[in-house]
Amino acid sequence: MSRPSLLATHPLFPEARTLLNARCDVEYWQRPERPSRAEFLKQVAPKDGVICLLTEKIDKEMLAAAPKVRIAANVAVGYDNISLPDCTSRKVVVTNTPGVLDETTADFAWTLLMCAARRVEEGEALCRSGQWAGWNLDQLCGGDVWGKTLGVVGFGRIGRAVARRSRGFGMKVIYTDAIRAPEGVEHELGARYVDMDTLLASADFVTLHVPMMAGTHHLINAERLKKMKPTAYLVNTARGPVVDNEALYQALKAGTIAGAGIDVHEQEPKIHAGLVSLKNVVLTPHIASASVETRTKMACMAAENVLAFFGGQRPPNVVNPEALG
Ligand code: DGY
Fold it and tell me: How far, rounded to the nearest angstrom, does the alpha carbon of residue 69 sit from its chain's CA centroid?
């Protein structure tokens, strides 16, 4: 094939552009805001492939609008923005960026956990308000982290990286997953496998690391929030719809749980208005993997997937191998 023509819905990083520009003709989305759906459909229409972010829907409509597209390279590990059945039936290869963001995301789950437990945002706001009247014995007391029980829901690469970090805090680790981890992993991380109800009832911190799919929609709902301890905290760096945000708001308001750290939201970029009004939740805008190093690696990985594909090789991170060949 001559130089394939691609749309990248982001300028990416210079390292990824250098890789791509050597072998492809790439149109890069340049504006700081995300492209509208109409702009995206128009730009992708004549292309052979697309490098997209999780903000772009790759679905039947897009595939019909861009009939030459052979690959959709998502710059994310999660690919719930992409309809795999539609891509596979059209033989469009889908790739993602697993592995490179695990440690950075785990760092951030811990950032949220610590900020929520130790009321960092409230303290920061007090410092900036000019209202701090000085040290006081019961001022902004939060919950201890050290020695507590960490409950990991979804014990894949990221869940395990979060668990590993708890060792320095002398925590107990329990986890739940559809598949139990090998004994060696449990031993290394000092992690005990339990069912979901036991985890919710026992953990002081519940951290979510499951992919978004039909079975994980509202995995944490009103009923499950009630099973958590009133002193417990919830951390979500997975996907927004894994948590019923209205139920979370009600639980935080009523004191059913003590607090939460939430990086991903049910209807991004909208954030539940109730959550915004509460002090016992730390809210961030889907930035758990947002270090320069990691985002650069993610962009390069997407570029390498595309280059392998158009070079006649199997892309390293295909999620629908049925679409190959
Ligand atoms: C992903 O990769 O799925 C994250 O949500 C963005 O890093």
Answer: 26
**Residue at 240: amino acid letter:** G
The residue whose CA has the least distance to atom 3 of ligand 1 is 78
Q: Which amino acid belongs to residue 234?
A: L
CA distance linking residue 153 with residue 203, whole number of Å: 11
Domains of the chain: 5-100+292-324 (3.40.50.720), 102-283 (3.40.50.720)
For a ligand 1 pocket test, name from 105, 107, 291 the mutation site with the most ligand atoms within 8 angstroms of its C-beta. Answer: 105
Distance (Å) of CA 108 to CA 12, 98, 125, 165, 300: 22, 17, 20, 11, 22
pTM over 0.85: yes
pLDDT, one tens digit per residue, over 70-97 is 999 999 999 999 999 999 999 999 999 9
Q: Where are the alpha helices (DSSP H) in the chain?
A: 14-23, 37-44, 60-65, 84-89, 102-118, 120-129, 157-165, 183-189, 196-202, 222-227, 245-254, 273-277, 292-310
To the query of whether residue 286 is one of the catalytic residues in this protein, the response is yes
- Whether 239 sits among the annotated catalytic residues: the reply is yes
Counting ligand 1 atoms within 8 A of each CB, the residue from 53, 54, 287 with the most, and so the one to mutate, is 54
- Taking phi over 0 as left and psi of -120 to 50 as alpha, with beta for the rest, 140 belongs to left
The catalytic position among 121, 122, 188, 268 is: 268
